């Protein structure tokens, strides 16, 4: 990549194959002004006459930055326990892997852990907001943008606990039961939760959370189709790590898997690591739902990026071996992939860059209700971008119009 300097606040990315909302544009150019996509130019169109910082991306593919809506940590940092500095380390780890936004994700825990995590995320969001201002710490590159908080539980099924700690699970009786879920104290913070609608009061819980503008996802569940339909009517429109922590499909009891495959107004997220979902199952889900209704997630846990071995996570020993996590009970305990690994797997299975861009960026943004602002390459949207080479390595990541990672 070559470059020339610069009109302040402007950046021109030149020569990439641009994966836009209407298809792939070969050898296009993209102009960024004040953190947003100003315009996409075709190969024959005249470029801006004034001097701007220019980065040559010839031979690379430009995609919208990946958005991970379910991630517990990396580099030994666990969202349940991290301060803002630790979360910042995760953010900088993620941008090197093409992630431009992420939703820190909690597992069921004591109230004080929830409150501490919410304060840490709020502090990180405040610091990242200041990074875009002129007086920001110029020496520190921006990390992936934290969006809010995802509660995986505590209102989930004891019978589909996965690696979650059942001693912290809860039932729901009245709105005051939600007051123990600490909020990130910012108007722009997204709050999401994964719940099982069959628990006591589960459908009413969906209704109450939707009224409070939470994103509600169905997961860690063995609900029957009738209860799932009630949850959908109450406002639940997404499913967490589809096919995991729910009963297997059976032709007489199709359950959450069968219902999710056929519910056209429900999106599903998938851990595309080759462990949680075998390749054929992954292809089946994408074929049935289409890339318009699938969001890729990492479900990455704290040992991500540390290699194989034993690690302490959520009060127990987690072993990482051959790319698979296992806890003391032998259950899979999250993943050790990034969104980049999920993208690579999907591309290796024959999915197109446009399809993968939908699943890694646009659908996650739509699930969170922020797709008007980000998640695709369109004029007026945030300049959150990633450039991949022919081997699907990240060469450049741009967050809010600022270069956050460069491979060279």
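-> sequence recovered:
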């Amino acid at each position: 990549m070559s470059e020339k300097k610069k009109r302040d606040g402007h950046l021109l990315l030149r020569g990439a194959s641009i994966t836009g909302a209407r298809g792939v544009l070969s050898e296009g150019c993209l102009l960024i002004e004040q953190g947003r996509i100003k315009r996409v130019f075709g190969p024959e169109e005249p470029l801006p006459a004034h001097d701007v910082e220019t980065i040559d991306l010839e031979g690379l593919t430009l995609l919208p930055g990946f958005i991970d809506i379910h991630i517990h940590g990396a580099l030994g940092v666990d969202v349940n326990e991290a301060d803002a500095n630790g979360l910042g380390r995760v953010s900088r780890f993620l941008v090197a892997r093409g992630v431009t936004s992420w939703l820190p994700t909690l597992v069921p825990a004591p109230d004080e852990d929830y409150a501490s995590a919410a304060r840490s995320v709020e502090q990180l969001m405040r610091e990242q907001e200041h990074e875009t201002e002129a007086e920001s710490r110029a020496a520190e590159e921006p990390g992936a943008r934290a969006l809010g908080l995802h509660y995986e539980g505590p209102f989930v099924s004891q019978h589909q606990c996965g690696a979650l700690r059942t001693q912290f699970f809860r039932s729901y009786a009245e709105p005051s039961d939600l007051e123990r879920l600490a909020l990130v104290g910012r108007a722009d913070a997204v709050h999401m939760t994964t719940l099982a609608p069959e628990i006591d009061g589960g459908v009413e819980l969906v209704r109450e959370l939707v009224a409070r503008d939470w994103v509600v996802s169905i997961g860690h569940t063995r609900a029957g189709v009738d209860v799932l339909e009630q949850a959908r009517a109450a406002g639940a429109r997404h499913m967490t790590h589809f096919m995991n922590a729910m009963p297997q499909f059976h032709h007489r009891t199709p359950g959450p898997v069968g219902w999710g495959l056929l519910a056209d107004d429900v999106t599903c997220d998938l851990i595309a690591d080759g462990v949680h979902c075998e390749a054929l199952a992954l292809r089946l889900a994408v074929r049935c739902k289409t890339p318009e209704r699938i969001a890729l997630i990492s479900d990455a846990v704290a040992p991500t990026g540390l290699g194989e071995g034993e690690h302490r996570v959520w009060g127990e020993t987690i072993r990482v071996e051959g790319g698979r996590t296992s806890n003391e009970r032998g259950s899979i305990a999250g993943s050790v992939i990034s969104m980049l690994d999920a993208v690579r797997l999907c591309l290796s299975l024959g999915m197109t860059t446009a399809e993968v861009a939908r699943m890694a960026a646009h659908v996650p943004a739509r699930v969170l209700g922020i797709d008007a602002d980000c998640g695709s390459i369109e004029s007026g949207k945030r300049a959150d971008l990633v450039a991949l080479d022919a081997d699907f390595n990240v060469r450049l990541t741009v967050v809010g119009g600022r270069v956050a990672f460069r491979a060279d």
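The first strand starts at residue 3 and ends at 4.
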